[in-house]
Design a protein that fits this description.
Helices cover 28% and strands 28% of the residues. By secondary structure, it is an alpha+beta fold. A 7-stranded mixed sheet has the order 1-2-3-4-5-7-6, with helices on both faces. Bound molecules: coenzyme A (COA).
């Protein structure tokens, strides 16, 4: 597959629910976001759900949480369908998540990633994220996570 200029991320809508649930089930074995949680996150002011697709579909999604009075946003989830990987979708979603965090006045974005998730770790490090602490037994299956963080530049 070739990288495409057609990729752009947008905010998710209720109409994306089925696609988001399908993507979540296909991507993650544990710690899945349920349909009810997706619905809540899409409607919530403190969450930002972004979707992106190779040709306008929903092949990838990101969820960012914002807390009132906090200058740090948290990238809670990032997933791209196996069939759409390697096209820059995650990069586009990450850039959109960062732009939204800056728009909301945040100075940093942080995230957790499984210590064995080499692809995602390579992605985050290539995008300027720095490794912080190791979180023991972070995931439902007992796996440890690394916390990564990136300072965001003001527009
Ligand atoms: C990790 C994931 C989101 C990457 O999505 P993607 O759309 O394929 O990533 P991109 O095409 O935007 O990649 C951007 C850069 O990240 C790095 N990267 C992404 N996946 C990589 C992999 N498997 N191995 C090495 N580097 C990788 C590369 O530097 C890549 O740039 P390049 O293609 O120019 O070399 C995707 O593989 C995925 O959804 N995995 C399963 C869920 C998951 O692990 N989510 C993260 C949880 S914290």
């Amino acid at each position: 597959m070739t990288r495409s200029a057609e990729i752009s991320a947008r905010k998710a809508a209720r109409a994306d629910l089925d696609a988001l649930v399908a993507l979540e089930c296909a991507t993650f074995e544990t710690d899945r976001i349920s349909r009810a949680q997706w619905r809540r996150h899409i409607a919530s002011d403190s969450a930002c759900v972004l979707v992106a697709g190779v040709r306008g579909g929903v092949d990838g999604a990101a969820v960012v949480f914002h807390r009132r009075n906090s200058r740090r946003a948290r990238l809670y989830s990032l997933a791209v369908a196996a069939s759409a990987r390697g096209n820059g979708l995650a990069k586009a979603l990450l850039a959109a998540a960062e732009a939204e965090a800056v728009r909301r006045g945040c100075e940093a974005l942080y995230l957790e990633v499984g210590v064995g998730n080499r692809g995602a770790i390579a992605l985050y490090e290539s995008q300027g994220y720095r490794r912080a602490v190791r979180l023991q037994g972070f995931y439902e299956d007992g796996t440890d996570a690394w916390r990564y963080t990136r300072r965001l530049a003001a527009p």
